[in-house]
UniProtKB/TrEMBL annotation:
Keyword flag Ribosomal protein: no
Protein name (record): 23S rRNA (Uracil(1939)-C(5))-methyltransferase RlmD
Organism: Chitinophaga defluvii
Active site, UniProt feature: 426, 426 (nucleophile)
Binding-site residues, S-adenosyl-L-methionine: 300, 329, 350, 399
Gene name for this UniProt entry: rlmD
Length: 474
């Protein structure tokens, strides 16, 4: 019998597998390990799954620390769910990500790979995000040490920070976060201190009550800053006092909005943010294109690497000005708009209607006249009549969500048989699965991973597919 809850002792960690889990081999099995370990560490692992060929578990003790380790820079490392790879030097993070992409394409996709260029690392390894969402909670997460060191002391249980992984009702109070540039920490700490000093209630997710719920901060490379404060119900006096105090303390804020959310869930997409100060949106730049980002708009969260990603996509598309380009899963149309000067026509398709409204507005703001955007499910929209009406694509750019492309869309792409497909993916595993299906008609010509999220295991990967020259039998 293969027992669970077995502890394997003194196992050397050898590498990384998917989803940021570390990897070891023992007794003919592959062991996937959680718990922030690094290749070169020697660890004890408590197994939670134990199958014939593989097992899964958590490192419970480190006997020997790898000489590959780096010193984590954040005081919240280990508890916070973000930046989980701080214990790895950035050069090694990139090496493992590159390896992951190659492994997925070869193992899942069973593909012969062209020589891969090295992953494009991020110019900024901290302060690279333009958007963060902080959560207010009256159930602060306290570490075992905090509880032990403060015996008999009543600890502050109101927190403004991030959800702790796997604990839906616990929020880690964040002091300094390195994901966004200043003055974002000043904004967060100003709001928290004011709320505590004035007895404003922090949300209780279990009881579904409390006034302050979330705060979303966007900081752009243009210098513009937007804060969206999400409150449970209107309280004009408290709201105005808090927002005025915030503006006075942080005059760099260019627009301040608030959203009233009395619902059980946190999504604000079905709510109307109200502008308290400024124009109600911010503007972000990618090369010479300017994008309007409202409180509900989607935009690549790492602007610097978003630009690099789009440059790779444009280079792979190899446009000459004569091509009809389909931009599938186009979001707010940013890829299509970015490549539009080099194309004859852009056809963008996206499920979310509001994103398509933004795409149209962004096209108009940038004086792009050859881009056309359509709201709906790619599977429903991409039928023969649609291609007939808008033209057969010379290049298809596809950028699906983590789940990858629907099989029906893959079949349609095989039927349409555009000369080139540029596949942008935030999940190399589903990308590899889709590429295996496309292999019937396409060859992988180029592979370029781009690191959008330093200190995390997340990988973005761009693949250029070219239609095979199939032998014609007479
Ligand atoms: C990874 S994002 C791509 C965004 C965009 N290309 C960009 O660079 O900003 C994936 C997009 O696919 C959209 N989406 C998801 N399922 C879809 C579907 N079935 N049909 C059309 N769009 C879909 C999502 O709303 C999301 O905007």
């Amino acid at each position: 019998m293969r027992k669970k809850n077995v502890v394997l002792e003194k196992i050397p960690v050898s590498g990384y597998a998917a989803e940021g889990k570390a990897l070891a081999r023992h007794d003919g099995k592959v062991i996937f390990i959680e718990g922030g370990v690094v290749p070169g560490d020697v660890v004890d692992i408590r197994l939670s799954k134990n199958k014939k060929d593989w097992a899964e578990g958590r490192a419970i003790h480190i006997h020997t620390y790898s000489d590959k380790r780096a010193e984590p820079f954040c005081e919240h490392f280990g508890t916070c769910g973000g930046c989980k790879w701080q214990m790895l030097p950035y050069s090694l993070q990139l090496e493992y990500k590159q390896q992951q992409v190659a492994d997925h394409l070869q193992r899942i996709g069973k593909l012969a790979l062209p020589a891969m260029d090295p992953i494009k690392g991020s110019r900024h390894t901290i302060h690279y995000r333009n958007k963060l969402e902080f959560t207010f909670s009256n159930r602060a997460y306290l570490t075992a040490e905090e509880i032990k060191d403060n015996e008999g002391v009543v600890l502050e249980r109101n927190a403004l920070g991030f959800h702790v992984p796997k604990l839906f009702d616990k929020v880690l109070d964040i002091n300094t976060c390195y994901l966004q540039e200043e003055p974002v920490n000043l904004i967060k700490n100003t709001v928290r201190e004011y709320a505590l000093a004035h007895g404003l209630s922090f949300y209780d997710i279990r009881a579904q009550e409390g006034w302050l719920r979330n705060m979303v901060v966007r900081i752009c490379t243009t210098g513009e800053i937007m804060v969206n404060l999400v409150i449970h119900h209107e309280n004009k006096k408290n709201r105005e006092a808090l927002l005025q105090h915030l503006l006075k303390t942080v005059p760099a804020i260019t627009t301040l909005v608030y959203t009233i959310n009395p619902k059980k869930n946190d999504t604000i997409f079905d709510l109307e943010p109200k502008v308290y100060y400024g124009k109600g949106y911010v503007e972000e730049k990618l090369e010479d294109f300017v994008f309007k980002i409202g409180p509900k708009s989607f935009f690549q969260t790492n602007t610097y690497q978003g630009e690099v990603l789009y440059q790779v996509t444009r280079e792979f598309a190899g446009l000459t000005g004569t091509e009809i380009v389909y931009d599938l899963y186009c979001g707010t149309g940013s890829i299509g708009i970015f490549v539009s000067p080099q194309a004859k026509k852009i056809v963008g398709i996206e499920l979310i209607r509001e994103a398509i409204d933004d795409a149209k507005e962004n096209a108009a703001r940038n004086n792009v006249q050859n881009a056309h955007f359509f709201a709906g499910d790619v599977i429903d929209i991409c039928d023969d009549a649609f291609f007939e009406q808008h033209g057969q694509p010379d290049v298809v750019i596809t950028d699906p969500p983590r789940a990858g492309m629907h099989e029906k869309l893959v079949s349609k792409l095989l039927q349409i048989a555009a000369p080139k497909i540029v596949y942008v993916s935030c999940n190399p595993a589903t990308q590899a699965r889709d590429l295996a299906l496309l292999d019937a008609l396409y060859t992988v010509e180029k592979v370029q991973p781009v690191d959008m999220f330093p200190h995390t295991h997340h990988i973005e990967n761009v693949v250029l597919l070219k239609k095979k020259l199939l032998a014609v039998s007479h």
